[in-house]
Each structure stands twice: as C-alpha cells, then as structure tokens.
Description:
The chain is mainly alpha-helical. Helices cover 71% and strands 3% of the residues. Helix 2 packs antiparallel against helix 4 and helix 4 runs antiparallel to helix 5.
Amino acid sequence: MPRKCDHYRLKTQERIPIKLICSLKGVVLMKGNQELIEILNSLLADELSAINQYMVHSEMSANWGYEKLHKHFEKRAIDEMKHAEKLIGRILFLEGLPIVTVLHSIKIGSDAVKQLANDHFAEQGAIKAYNEAILFAGNVKDFATREVLEAILEEEDRHIDEIEELQDQISHMTLPLFLTTQVG
C-alpha cells in the first residue's frame, strides 16, 4: 500500500512524486538506516526459512494422519508469513529492497519429537535475533521499527510457549499416547 505522502495530487489530477516537491521546498526525506534494513532482511530470511520448515512439518503430519499436529504447524507457518509480510512492509517503508531470495538452512525432523525440537531451536534463534534488532532500532532512534519488531517478538515468544507445551505433553504422556491425541 503506498504511503500517503508518496504523491501530491494537483487540481488537474496530475500526480507529482513527493520527492520532487520536497526537493523544491528544501525538505529532506529520511531514508532508513542501511544497517537496520540489512538486519530486517536477515530477519526476513529467517521468517521465510521458518515458513518452509513449518510447511514441511505440517504436510508430514498430515501424511501420517495427525490432523491436529498438521493444523498446529500450518498455523505457525501462516503466522510466520504474516511476520514476513510486516518485515517486507517495513523495509519498503524505509526505502530498502526486501530480499526474498535468501533462505537460511532448515531442519526437517523425521518424527514429531525431532520436528518440535528443531522448531524450538529455530524459535530460540528468532527470539535472540529480534531482541538484538530491537536494541539496534532503539540505538538508531527508529522507534516505529522497534515497535514492529516488538510485536513480532511477542508472537515468537508465544510460539515457543506453544512448542514447549506440546513437548511437555509428550514427556508426560509418552510419544505413542500423545500421537493418539493428534489424530483427526
């Protein structure tokens, strides 16, 4: 969605880029901090990688007949897509270029226990990366970006809590009993 200030509409309905108007009036538009944009792109690569990992885990669970576990992973992939969308929007707002062709390595688990362990590891990494990015955004005084990152971090914290809840259920009930609760 274009920002409201991207164009100025004259009475003739002719659109003039706001950068031209600002340059004529001596106004300087702030571009985003380049290092922060690079950090946002790294977070974007993490999110895009997580989407792939969760989707594979989701489809594996569906293939095994564990519908509830399938839905758990599918919902998580959708959450990560929303995070990627927010990051792309912020990068564009800061006049950066979102890089969507870079993925970090993903770890596919061969069973539910390994899948949850791999996802827990990925979420821990995401939480660490978001905390570091939040600090950096504050240091460069980009408080709006910091707020976006804080909102995503809150959701990542919820993700790890939900993964730990499933891991606790497995440890309390044993894997075979847990898996019977995940059917249909």
